[in-house]
Design goal:
single chain; Rossmann fold; four-stranded antiparallel sheet; 9 helices; binds adenosine-5'-diphosphate; binds magnesium ion
Length: 250
Amino acid sequence: MNDLSQSNIIHIEQLTKVFYTDELETHALAGVHLSIAPGEYVAMSGPSGCGKSTLLSILGLLDTPTTGQYTLNGKAVANLGFADRSRIRNQEIGFIFQSFNLIGDLTVFENVELPLTYRAGMAGAERKERALHALERVNMAHRTSHYPAQLSGGQQQRVAVARALAGSPSILLADEPTGNLDSKNGEAVMRLMQDLHSEGATICMVTHDPRFAAHAERQIHLFDGKVVSEDELLRLLAASEESTSTGTAV
Ligand code: ADP
Ligand code: MG
């Protein structure tokens, strides 16, 4: 392994993902390179269907790449089996989804505590202390016995952030965390992400909102399954608009 794969939390090289459905082959990722250093806040954006969620799922060990290298905290993880992936995901990754993904028949407290119950060797008392601390961190400790349906969307997303934080992961991955929120609740969740970052959290967040992307210290752009520079993105978008308008004119 080279130095870059050791000094970064995330280091990927030449990552591809191909989906096969019926007779169709979709090249969702077409050779992605990306490194994220400890403590960085990275925002990822790009047009719908360009591979953002696919990339985040692979980074979060929810899916595996077709080819390529992925080093997470110094460990090669691209080709691990299901059990190893689950264990490493539980320890290293905090995932925040657009649709919150809380479990409806568990209370707020139980939702946050649940991932910690899969940690070998973590005593019940530590689990409870961590869950409560994470809920305090997102200002939801006054709602521990509520069920998700009794909360607003913004509150549900704060609980989901607490669930992601409770296990002290190496990195927080968020896939359009404000996508289902109104602007006020969206801004509150974004402030929370900024606060977590200023306390040292490493964050990679997908967002299509340029105001929120501007909160991050680095912005990366994805286009057709590849990381491109901002200049390149503008050129590609202009070219695709041109070809669309030519197409309709014909
Ligand atoms: P984004 O999040 O940027 O909108 P996605 O990563 O969800 O894009 O999708 C990238 C491409 O891969 C799209 O063409 C999408 O249709 C395809 N895709 C995503 N997931 C699957 C899947 N499970 N099976 C087949 N195709 C998929
Ligand atoms: Mg997506």
